[in-house]
């Protein structure tokens, strides 16, 4: 069961960015095939990128330095969440409530991300005004190599 989840995660990581691209996805998808014994080595590996942002002034802390450190951490976590959405997908739950006259009385949308991100690296961390930003990069070749080392391929 765990092996199948690893394979599915890898396949999503490989296919999602390519599906969002134009013509380049066609040749890539032909080379990536899932079988009962795993995922065959693709001919190309996309690089996934994500950026997370956090407000510095809204962070709790007694000094500006403490607030900046907390914003650095918050922006990094947000960047990992963005990357996890690309790798693992995002679960959306939407609810609408109608009264007896079919008039909408309430509307809510909730999202949830659950998954692992292996092999990502921080490219840049920087402040822009009152906002701190963290840029992450994940080379899908790293994912493939990690799973291959674990015997999942």
Brief rundown of the structure:
The protein is of the alpha+beta class and 153 residues long. Helices cover 41% and strands 31% of the residues.
H/E order of the elements?
A: HHEEEHEEEEH
The portion of residues forming beta strands comes to 25-35%
Number of helices: 4
- Assembly of the depicted chains: single chain
Structural class: alpha+beta
Return residue spans where pLDDT drops below 50 for at least 5 consecutive residues. 10-34
Question: What count of domains describes the coordinates?
Answer: 1
Average pLDDT metric: 78
Taking the alpha carbons of the first and last residues, their distance comes to 14 Å
The shape is flat
The number of distinct β-strands equals: 7
Tell me the strand order in the biggest sheet.
3-7-6
Largest beta-sheet characterization? 3 strands, antiparallel
- Percentage of residues assigned to helices: 40-55%
Rg value: 20 Å
Description:
By secondary structure, the protein is of the alpha+beta class. The protein has one domain. The protein has 4 helices and 7 strands. The strands form 3 sheets. Strands 3-7-6 form a 3-stranded antiparallel beta sheet. A two-stranded antiparallel sheet has the order 1-2. A hairpin with a 5-residue loop joins β4 and β5. α1 packs antiparallel against α2 and α1 runs antiparallel to α4. It is flat, with a radius of gyration of 20 Å. About 16% of the residues have low confidence.
């Amino acid at each position: 069961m765990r092996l199948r989840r690893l394979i599915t995660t890898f396949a999503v990581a490989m296919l999602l960015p390519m599906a969002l691209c134009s013509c380049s996805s066609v040749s890539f998808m032909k080379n990536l095939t899932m079988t009962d014994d795993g995922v065959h080595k693709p001919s190309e590996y996309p690089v996934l990128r994500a950026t997370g942002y956090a407000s510095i002034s809204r962070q709790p802390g007694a000094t500006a330095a403490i607030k900046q450190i907390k914003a650095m951490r918050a922006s990094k976590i947000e960047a990992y969440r963005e990357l996890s959405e690309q790798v693992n997908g995002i679960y959306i739950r939407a609810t609408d409530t109608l009264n007896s006259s079919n008039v909408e009385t309430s509307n809510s949308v909730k999202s949830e991300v659950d998954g692992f991100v292996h092999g990502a690296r921080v490219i840049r961390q920087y402040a822009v005004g009152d906002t701190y930003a963290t840029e992450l990069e994940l080379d899908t070749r790293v994912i493939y190599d990690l799973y291959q080392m674990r015997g999942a391929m």
